[in-house]
Amino acid sequence: MNRKHLTILHSNDLHGDFLPRTVDGVERGGLSRLSGYVKKVRAEEPNVIYANAGDMFRGSVIDSEYMGLSTIELMNLLNPDVSAVGNHEVDYGIAHLLFLEKCARFPIINADLYITFNNLRLFTPYLNIERDGMRVLFIGLLTQEVISAAKQEKVIGSFIDVSEAAKQVGIICDSYRTKDTDLVVLLTHIGIEADRELAARLLPEWGVDIIIGGHTHTFMTEAEVVNGIPIVQAGTGSGQIGRFDIEYEQDSHVLTEWKWQCLPITADTAPTDPVMDGLITGYQHQTDAKYRRIVTHFARELTHPSRIQETELGNLYTDLLQNESSFDLMVMGSGSIRKQRLGPIVEYRDMIENTPFDDMLWMLKVTGAQLRRMAQYVFRDEAWEGHTEFYQYSKGMRIVYRKSTHSFEEFKFRGEDIRDEQEILICLQHYHYANFEGCFGIPLAEVSANMKPRVIATSLQNVVEELLSTHDGLDAHVEGRIVILD
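Predicted structure:
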């Protein structure tokens, strides 16, 4: 018997989480210790592969100040064996992403981004990695949100449907999986629910053994097995790492045993990497001069613990943007607020990291009936998995929604039931305006017939900084604007 051992480490959705954080009195994460852990395992185990399942970018001023170039340099030092493209990899544009790929000293794979007029792929779709005679075939798949982020780049397309993605996996496996292939791993950035659907659609003949995912920031204590295929994610950030320990019988091409864990990155589990420390410190010194100035003080620390509920920070931002404005209701994407906690001292760095997407703001007129349909679509069942768009509403909105009946028990504005014929001026960020139908389930043309939409601000970040810097001691509470009943 030719039995071999393979260790696969994996991260996803690092989002610029370069520095350690203190959680419940324990310092956790940071690229220095994450790198230290990967190096330690590579020294301890004979056959190690480290994979990244997308979304390296966004979340830190170190990333945004250099438009991802700093992140690529740090990732080069972290040295993954393979990385998938995530939806935030295109935040600086497809052309810039292709430039960043040239700067990367690690392979970046994706099977479903292509040029529309000739169907040529933008990236290498797969990668074979060999360890001690074992050959592992990695295939990269991306969420449909890349189409949203690259809306203006008409020449870029993607296989956005899960059934089409499954078909693409079959094509690659049929074409490039050979008798020498020992394991097939899908490195996806499509979210946990889509991973489940994808696994269910895969034919056994394609030989997919593992799905390593990202995008929904799902923290798991054990692998979830669908159609005989283990599916895993490692949450978000650098505070933990996923680890497969695999026993493989090479002669019979059988994965005989596997164990998966999601391990914390702390002083107890990981040494620091002094070279990584030095690189991060250098970037910190360069950005601190620009970003370490105080913008405002809150009355206390405010929170945004989940994107699928009303939050203190959601109420603060929507109220600030709506107050003394030309519109009635601010509808702000929950995912636009990136920090779980902010304040009481808010530095410019904190502000930028919390709302990194510098969108234009659009004003639209909707009827009460349209607003109800929009909310009904937002509150569909998939929302509670946390991988659809969800929204925070400014003061005056009152929604009570029951999941079990898919119905609103209250749908009010300024204390009154919203009438179908009522007209309400709402404000959206550009991303949600540009992808209106995908976000709200209604064609933009239908809403535009009420009033021609218009830009009312060209920079969300500039407006937020002005409003925060001119208001001290701000506070906000969860007031029951969004109530979800089971």
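Summary: The radius of gyration is 23 Å.
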